[in-house]
Write a structure and sequence with these properties.
The complex is a heterodimer of chains A (160) and B (464). Chain A is built from 5 helices and 5 strands, in the order αββαβαβαβα. Chain A has 160 residues and is an alpha/beta fold. Chain A has one domain: P-loop containing nucleotide triphosphate hydrolases (Rossmann fold, 3-Layer(aba) Sandwich), CATH 3.40.50. In chain A, the strands form 2 sheets. Chain A has a 3-stranded parallel beta sheet, with helices on both faces. Chain A has a two-stranded antiparallel sheet with strand order 1-2. Chain B has a 5-stranded antiparallel beta sheet, covered by helices on one side. Classes of the chains: A alpha/beta (160), B alpha/beta (464).
């Protein structure tokens, strides 16, 4: 999980794994690993998703490089109400792709509950998703909107 | 030569670290940990079990660990691993991985994972980071909010367009301006817009509410005083006119200005000079005067409460602020604007108004104007948990169903009834609004003693 502070990375993971949402903001330091077993087929095939909820990257380090190397996918989380942070997230993504160009990329446009409607989605976000040719999923951890869909999409991609 | 393991066990006994030894197949070969918090919420490490069951952080890092077998490789650290203990408490650990120089008994290479409980220092770091990030988020939210105010004046009605036209015309010439309108129509906002449009935000904008300052003090506040000018003048003090030099002086509720001060203000407007109290020296300042009132000043002139010459002097350009009830669909525009603001403030997800709610807002008389609309939306946002504000979320003051004409007081009890306490609270608030926060006058309006009034506003936690 990549993204600036306060975009809702931890909220998305907690919503998905535990089905919970906490309105209060608590910044993450370090890394929090959560796991979820996802059924892939009726035949009983499952995928063990190990989700790395990373703190906001203030400075790239060797440790982050190793985390990036070991990832099969990256979810870049944006807060749709903070367009000013989009560019910084794009830089983090470029850092990630520089180290691991094989990983699948997914964009989560989080906090869509703060938008009046989907038409008011910042155009810059759509452009970023198009540029990286990656899916953009509208999510709201608060209202559990798009959260199962996002992780199901990732599971389907990784399990295929 | 000291055995590595004996040394390690000796160290761990005296510190808060623990360790696990595992082979290249990730099977645990040896374990030693003095604390169990790390594993409280997950699988406990057992010899021969896969270490990844109890330390899932290793998933995906297998290649990194293999590379540790290179004797020149530096130990690999996963810093500040978050673990939620069984009691729900969040704890932090550092995991440091290294290859062991001496292979196990079976000759297989092995690794060691040292686990260090760093909860105390990491918790402090979390607190500091939290403060910094919250500050940054608050700044971002504020910036987002200010975007709503870029135009400064919301509305598309003809009345608002006319006000905009006035603002554009006067920006260049900076004349003395009188803003008239009912309470809550946004006179202060217009004064600031006049200032910002012609001078920008860096020049001083000095505001004084003439009704909020005791008449005995207002002269010294405006014109300043010299040391010894009166009993308590222990030092000299600049007046607001001097503070506003190069900018704008906004006199709100100018109709409440004492007659004696009116004469001195008129003199200043004529000559652009004045004297501080207790001083003979003339001071010259350059400022734009903007005055506002909800009083009928012509009537005040007739009643000899306001000087006619001052009235004509400040009436160079007059802007009449329309009442909210005259703005038609702008009411909904403003309501949606406040909904967005309070969505940020209260972290709510209401995004609009139902059809019935819109109708209710459009047919109400809004005696308190925009200020009342803001309060109504604020209250609705506090109690509304859905995406749409319904008509029942909008609590309008029953007595104000008919505009207050100033000739009496009517009270309408709706079919669904009302709470007496709410009416009392509303009356107290409205009295304060009507008197711009002057508690003595508000108490007088309601026929209460000042003590009783204060007791009641304290009881209802009303602030103004």
């Amino acid at each position: 999980m990549l993204g600036m502070f306060g975009v809702g990375k931890t909220s998305l993971v907690h919503r998905y794994v535990h089905g919970l949402f906490d309105d209060s903001y608590k910044s993450t330091v370090g890394v929090h690993i959560l796991q979820k077993t996802v059924p892939l087929s009726a035949a009983g095939k499952v995928l063990n998703l190990v989700l790395w909820d990373l703190a906001n990257i203030e400075k790239m380090s060797h440790a982050f490089e190793n985390y990036f190397r070991g990832s099969a996918a990256a979810i870049v989380v944006f807060d749709v109400s903070r367009p000013a942070s989009f560019e910084m997230q794009r830089i983090h993504l470029d850092d990630f792709l520089h180290i691991n160009s094989n990983a699948s990329i997914f964009f989560a446009a989080n906090k869509v509950d703060l938008l009046e409607n989907e038409k008011t989605m910042p155009a810059a976000l759509v452009e970023i998703a198009q540029k990286y040719d990656a899916p953009l999923v509208l999510t709201s951890a608060k209202e559990n909107q798009g959260v199962p869909g996002l992780f199901d999409l990732i599971a389907a991609k990784l399990g295929s | 030569m000291i055995d590595d393991r004996l040394l390690l066990q000796s160290i761990t006994r005296q510190t808060r670290i623990g360790y696990l030894v595992f082979d290249t197949d990730f099977h645990i070969r040896e374990k030693y940990f003095r604390f169990t918090r790390f594993f409280e919420s997950g699988d406990k490490p057992e010899v021969n079990s896969d270490i990844r069951n109890c330390i899932p952080e290793i998933h995906g890092l297998e290649q990194v660990l293999f590379e540790l077998q290179d004797q020149t490789a530096r130990p690999f650290k996963i810093a500040q691993v978050n673990k939620v203990a069984a009691n729900g408490q969040l704890r932090y650990f550092d995991l440091v991985f290294s290859s062991l120089k001496s292979p196990g008994a079976d000759g297989q290479a092995s690794y060691i994972c040292i686990i260090d409980d760093i909860s105390e220092t990491a918790s402090l770091q979390q607190i500091l980071r939290q403060q910094r990030y919250e500050f940054e988020l608050a700044k971002t939210n504020l910036a987002a909010k200010s975007e709503f105010f870029t135009d400064g004046l919301l509305g598309q009605s003809a009345a608002i367009e006319q006000v905009r036209g006035f603002l554009r015309k006067i920006a260049e010439h900076r004349p003395t301006v009188l803003i008239q309108g009912e309470s809550g129509t946004g006179k202060s906002l217009i004064a600031k817009l006049i200032h910002n449009t012609s001078l920008g935000t860096k020049a001083p904008f000095v505001e004084i509410n003439c009704a909020a300052i005791p008449s005995s003090l207002i002269e010294s506040e405006l014109f300043g005083y010299e040391k010894g000018a009166f009993t308590n003048a222990v030092t000299s003090k600049k007046g607001l006119l001097e503070e506003a030099d190069g900018g704008t002086l906004f006199l709100d509720e100018i109709g409440e200005l004492p007659i004696s001060v009116q004469a001195k203000l008129l003199s200043f407007l004529e000559n652009r000079s004045f004297r501080r109290l207790g001083c003979t020296e003339e001071k010259f300042v350059q400022l734009q005067l903007v005055a506002a009132t909800n009083k009928n000043l012509q009537k005040a002139v007739r009643n000899q409460e306001f000087r006619q010459d001052l009235f004509y002097r400040i009436h160079v350009v007059s802007i009449d602020m329309p009442a909210l009830r005259e703005l038609g669909d702008d009411i909904l525009l403003l309501a949606n604007h406040f909904i967005r603001i309070f969505s940020f403030d209260f972290k709510k997800h209401a995004r609009g108004l139902s059809k019935k709610a819109r109708q209710k807002l459009l047919t109400y008389s809004w005696p308190g104007n925009v200020r009342e609309l803001r309060n109504v939306i604020e209250r609705a946002m506090i109690f509304c948990d859905s995406k749409t504000i319904e008509d029942h979320d909008l609590v309008l003051w029953p007595a104000a169903e008919s505009p207050d004409t100033g000739h009496g007081f009517s009270l309408h009890i709706p079919d669904e009834g009302l709470r007496l306490e709410e009416v009392e609270r509303e009356l107290l608030t409205r009295a304060l609004e009507k008197t711009n926060g002057n508690q003595s006058r508000a108490a007088s309006l309601l026929g209460l003693s000042l003590d009783t009034f204060r007791y009641r506003i304290k009881k209802f936690d009303i602030t103004f």
